[in-house]
């Protein structure tokens, strides 16, 4: 089965303001104020591609997830001996795709996955699997990460110190005008560089 990338989007903060986030003018202020940088970036890139696959399931892949929120919960547990429900609910690994589906009214369901090895290759495999299995025609694949909190950097590997970003790709078994054969861009790292204008799929 031939797979195509029918639409893609990328968002990252400027290097001089790495903590900045997308505006998300289409999200209610009450919901928006609770969202982390990772979740805001995820919502933004999904919003940009959603019209190309409005009923498609969402596959979210991240190497760190909500690391800052997790640290907040760990501190509460150590210092107070208890965890409040609200911070905990936003610290779980699937918080970003879950909030994206809520904010954008998506009904196709979602999957949140942690890659055991190469995030780019595994993200592509995870995203392609439901299509290859005949479960759906299209999938919205999101690969996103945020910077680790300083407290984690002392024990992290150099490759774990990632600049914040989010990228979304609509993978589909149906060729659309402007589609790119996935086989020519199966390396998602190249795809992200393409979105940033640093490379091209051939």
Walk me through the structure.
- This protein is an alpha/beta fold and about 200 residues long.
- The chain has one domain: Peroxisomal Thiolase, Chain A, domain 1.
- About 35% of the residues lie in helices and about 15% in strands.
- The protein has helices at about 30, 35-50, 65-80, 85-90, 95-105, 120-130, 150-155, 190-195; strands at about 5-10, 60, 110-115, 140-145, 165-170, 180.
- Helix 2 (about 35-50) crosses helix 5.
- The longest helix has 14 residues, at about 65-80.
Summarize the structure.
With 202 residues, this protein is of the alpha/beta class.
The helix/strand class is alpha/beta
Low-confidence stretches: none
Tally of separate helices: 8
Q: Architecture in CATH?
A: 3-Layer(aba) Sandwich
Looking at this protein, list some descriptive labels:
36% helix; Peroxisomal Thiolase, Chain A, domain 1; 202 residues
List the helices and strands and how they pair.
Blueprint: E1 4-11, H1 29-32, H2 37-49, E2 58-61, H3 67-80, H4 85-89, H5 95-104, E3 110-113, H6 119-132, E4 138-145, H7 150-153, E5 165-172, E6 180-181, H8 188-195
Parallel strand pairs: 2-3, 2-4
Antiparallel strand pairs: 1-5, 1-6, 4-5
Helix pairs in contact: 2-5
